[in-house]
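Listing S7. Sequence submitted for prediction.
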Amino acid sequence: MCEFVEEQIQHEDQTWNFRKIIGHRRDLGPRDKPEIQIEWESGEITFEPITEFYKDEPWLLAEYAQEKGLIDDWERRCPRLKLSRHARNAKKMMRVINQAKRQSYQNTPIYMFGVKVPRNHEQAVKFDEENGNRLWQEAEAKEIGQMFEYNVFEDHGHRNAGQPPEGYKQIRLHLVYACKHDGRRKARIVAGGHLTDPPLESVYSGVVSLRGLRMVIFLSELNKLKVYQTDIGNAFLEARTTEKVYVIAGGEFGSYKDHIFVIVGSLYGLKTSSKRFHEVLNDVLREMGFFPCVAEPDIWMRAMNADGTVMSTEDLEKEQPAYTYEGVSRPIFDGYYEYVASYVDDLTIGSRDPDSILDYLQVRAKFKLKGSSEINYLLGCDYWRDDDGVLCSAPKQYLEKMEVEYERLFGEKPRKSRAPMDPNAHPELDLNKRGILFLRS
């Protein structure tokens, strides 16, 4: 149900985009008007008269009629439809069809946490004017300022006066917008990495699994460690790229419009950017004495002495092994482990002194951290402590969003329950064999 609700995209005038034409009525009588079967973005399937559909999408209707060999029959039944004329110029027809499909996508509004999100710079300016503020434009300006702060681009002058370096390929940039759970507007410059040549090296970079993240939080609570979260701002820009690409600056860059920018930072969208940042972060964690978990490489651990100092590798090797499994020995010591779980630029820290880890990341590694605090919202899940101090988690904000969408789709609020089954149900008392098999399934 949640997946179905998330897929729904509705226009502000309460209409839906069509997804595709999936069929038509057959065995029509002599005077019957043809109808096509349409699948809408809401998942609903209906029959609609071709005369109505023709008013908005004549090319798509002509494409379907030509594919099914229905042009002559439909023009005979509906003389006002000029399907054959649309079908004669096939190349133009396909071009206009693709344009119509893009227009269908571009006209679909996007909402995040109840805020309408723009698709490009022009929409950002328009939405700010409608809202009477400059929140989206300020987000753009902040992102562009950070590009220059991180020295992501090398400026080679105006395109009419300068030249890109030899062997470099031109790609495009575009802005991606988002609204965070706390209402902050975010704009991110993304490179058109799909235009670059396939890299010869592996570009894989992992992230911690949700099960691994829960394990880190559980072990931290079990060992009375503080659980903190932090976000490395503009993480990919901390690394340098090896790809040879450049862009022509657009209007969002103000006075730098039409300048040739060679990309030297690992900009979002490039094929190798994730791996480059992954390497930088891994090197920093190793400098701090962390090592990757054997079972989950994006969970980093370090052994600590009982007094809170980092146990040296030599001291750790001297400890008496507790057991050996598949050649890996586990030592016994009087200290404890600290943990850092990495999910791209989101870090979850389990430590008795998380501030010291945060200070190292900011002062020594020079990462720009944001949202550093005790864990409260991470990867779509809310965290809080109950009256007894027990750490609890639940996707509260996600469920609130689903409740609003459910009510909009079905006209009523969903019935709330603390468990997926009826509280009065006792399946353990059911001796019916078919019922047992059904519940087990």
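Caption to Listing S7: primary sequence and predicted structure tokens for the chain studied. The first strand starts at residue 18 and ends at 24. The chain has a mean pLDDT of 83.
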